[in-house]
Amino acid sequence: MDRLILFRHGKAEAESASGDDFDRRLAPRGIAESAAMGGQLADLGLRPDLALVSAAARTRETWSAAEPHFPKARLSIEEDLYHADSGSIRREVARAGAGVGTLMVIGHNPGLQEPTVQLLAEGSAPASLIDRARRRFPTAAAAVFLFDANGRPAFDGLFVPERGLERGD
Q1: What is the pTM of this model?
Q2: Looking at residues 109-128, what average pLDDT do you find?
Q3: What is the number of structural domains in the chain?
C-alpha cells in the first residue's frame, strides 16, 4: 500500500427508527459533507483503489455519497470495522493493503481518530498537527498518509469539512 485514507462517516441522525446504533443513517448535512469530501479528495488525486467500509448504515451511506468521485474503486463491506478500535483497524489495513496502491477506510470514531494520531506521531508530524488531530476529528473528516517501502507513514493531508484542508506537501 502506498497511501491510506482514513475517512470518518458523515454526520448521522441522532437515532434510528429501529433504535439500534448500527442502523443510524446520515443526516442531510452528512450526505452533503460526505459527497463534498469525496469530491475534494478526488480533485486532489486522492482516489482509492479499494474502500473498506464498515457495515453500519451511516458508513455505507457515506460511501454512497462519495463513491461517484471514485468510479474505479473496489468496495468491501467489513462487519469488523463497526466500532473497531485502532488496533483492529490497523490489522484490517495491513491485511487488505497488500498489493493496493491507495486504500480507503470508512469507519467510526474513536477508531479512526486514534490511528490518525498514531500515524502522525510515527511519521514525525509537527506536534501542533498531532494535537489538532487528537482534539478533533469531526464527521466527514479524512486523514491521508503516504507509506515508504519500509511501511513508514508520512502525513499527506488532513481534510476537515468545516475548515477546508491542510496539506503536508
Answers
A1: 0.94
A2: 95
A3: 1
